């Protein structure tokens, strides 16, 4: 691949990343349209219609064979089931946060997610923290503690969102399938539970589909497309550009959500919130610069300076 083509692919990949993370960032606006629907019911519809949409994508692309092959592997099936449970819990928490006017706290969760992922890698995979990663995690922890101290409660929504998504990423790494097939399997495994829940609600007359407007029904069914399209764009972005660039772009989503929480949903954003977020933002800047190789560890840098070149 020549330089011109590589640059073109990078540009295309970056745009896919920007569009995907922007879509994730504005998703609270979509869930606000369903504020009258209970969070658990929205989740059930999100799982069901995501599977329907993904099934259509697999049918068109001929990807069903990959899904069948993965289902035949019992060990993979257990891991995929765990992935499905984790992402479902993550989705439920986010929907609950949006529909209970806690979008600001939800955005905090996705800001600290990369740092929680690193922490999990240290605890589970026994990876070693670099000095800059340690500083980043320390600053982010300070930011969370400021909110906890000020309001007398731990920001559970932020921690659950960050923790479940980090665990989801770690577990997903163990499956070894492409994103579309992986999410199809995850939704396929939890879909029967979601379908049973929806049918139970409808049969007892308390389900939403029998009592809301046609527009609300369309929005509920559209939850599948709203869920899957950003993921497909993200997968395409990863295919075209490098992971570090996609990692940098990921901060678009929580930034948009934060601005929506403050400016559109008029959620309370105090001086303590601002200080807390400043700690987290500084942590993320340090974390990103260290990952890009701009910052070097103190010991390593000192060793390089003290190293005496040997005579040939």
Keywords:
single chain; 312 residues; mainly alpha; 14 helices; globular
Describe this protein's structure.
It is built from 14 helices and no strands. It is globular. Helix content is 80%, strand content 0%. The chain is mostly helical and 312 residues long. The model has no long low-confidence stretch (mean pLDDT 85).
User: How would a crystallographer describe the biggest sheet?
Assistant: none
Anisotropy-based shape:
globular
Q: Whole-number average pLDDT?
A: 85
Rg is 21 Å
Enumerate how many helices there are, as a single number: 14
Give the CA-CA distance, first to last residue.
Answer: 38 Å
Number of strands: 0
Beta-strand level of the residues, as a percent range? under 5%
Structural class: mainly alpha
What is the element string, with H for helices and E for strands? HHHHHHHHHHHHHH
Q: Please bin the fraction of helical residues.
A: over 70%
Q: Which residue ranges are poorly predicted, with pLDDT under 50 across at least 5 consecutive positions?
A: none
Task: Give a brief rundown of this model.
By secondary structure, the protein is mainly α.
């Amino acid at each position: 691949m020549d330089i011109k083509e590589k640059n073109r692919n990078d540009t295309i990949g970056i745009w896919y990343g920007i569009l995907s993370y922007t879509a994730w960032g504005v998703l609270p606006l979509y869930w606000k349209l369903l504020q009258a629907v209970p969070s658990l019911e929205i989740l059930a519809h999100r799982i069901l219609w995501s599977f329907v949409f993904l099934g259509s994508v697999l049918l068109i692309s001929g990807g069903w064979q990959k899904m069948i092959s993965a289902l035949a592997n019992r060990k993979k099936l257990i891991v995929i089931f765990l992935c499905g449970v984790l992402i479902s819990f993550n989705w439920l928490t986010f929907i609950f946060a949006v529909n209970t006017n806690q979008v600001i706290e939800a955005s905090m969760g996705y800001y600290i997610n990369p740092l929680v992922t690193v922490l999990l890698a240290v605890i589970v995979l026994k990876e070693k923290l670099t000095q800059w990663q340690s500083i980043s995690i320390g600053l982010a922890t300070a930011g969370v503690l400021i909110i906890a101290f000020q309001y007398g409660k731990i920001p559970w929504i932020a921690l659950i969102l960050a923790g479940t998504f980090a665990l989801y990423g770690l577990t997903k790494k163990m499956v070894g399938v492409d994103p579309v097939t992986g999410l199809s399997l995850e939704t396929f495994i939890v879909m029967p539970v979601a379908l049973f829940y929806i049918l139970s609600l409808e049969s007892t007359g308390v389900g939403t589909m029998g009592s809301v407007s046609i527009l609300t029904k369309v929005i509920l069914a559209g939850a599948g497309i709203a869920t899957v399209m950003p993921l497909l764009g993200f997968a395409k972005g990863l295919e075209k550009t490098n992971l570090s660039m996609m990692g940098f772009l990921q901060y678009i989503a929580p930034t948009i959500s934060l601005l929506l929480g403050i400016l559109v949903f008029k959620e309370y954003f105090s001086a303590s919130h601002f200080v807390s977020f400043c700690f987290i933002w500084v942590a993320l800047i340090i974390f990103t610069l260290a990952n890009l190789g701009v910052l070097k560890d103190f010991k390593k840098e000192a060793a390089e300076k003290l190293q005496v070149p040997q005579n040939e």
